[in-house]
Amino acid sequence: MKTYIVIGDSHAKPGVNNNRFSILGKMIVDVKPDVLIQMGDLYDMESLCSYDKGKKSFEGRRYRNDISAGDDAMERISHEMKKSKFNCDKEALEGNHENRAERCISLEPQLEGIVGVSGMSFADHGWNLTRYEGSSPGLLVKDQIAFAHFHVTGIMQRPISGEHPAYQMIMKRHMSCVGGHSHLVDYAERNRADGRRIQGAVVGCFLDPRQFEEYAGSANWMWNRGIMIFRDVYKGTFDMEWVSMKRIFRTYA
User: Whole-prediction pTM value?
Assistant: First the structure.
């Protein structure tokens, strides 16, 4: 029986306080999980956002600053763990925001070796990184649970979404699944004919409580900010505990 801490989209970026990552490090040391899973989009990479290019909001963005913000977030988590001499299995998924760097290279190949996921500090801090597979997020299967930044289905590999994404994931992928990306929390479970349970979870986001993403407008207030803990993980099953950002700050700040 294992314990997982699952970290949803964090979007570390210039101008947003990274103190939450130091607090997360303290939480990790307290909970002492067997496995950490970072679900992707820790590096926001707003300087490579093609949607904002040419707009007033794009002014002042710099690639180096984006990398520094993500590196600082990683260092803050590592610092708390090293200080307490605690370590565990650390897995990270490449999200669509980190993948912006690879898409940039495909459009501007002369930047290869300068821009890219290899310049982000996952390996420096001992995180195993699951990369994108073509245009789709990579899949990490651990303890018979499939983790992906977002899950895809069909020949065209369309993202699984809709009003009940956790249910859609387990019905289309036929196993326990965990996803991020939407910044929402959702959960579903079903039993197979042999009585075995399969579970689906979407794990919210780990954004600063005051972090407002202008592109999302009023959807910001719909997002679930916090951390997901899976306890008694065994052969695709787990007990799920949601810890809100308010409770995390109250306990560990």
Answer: 0.95
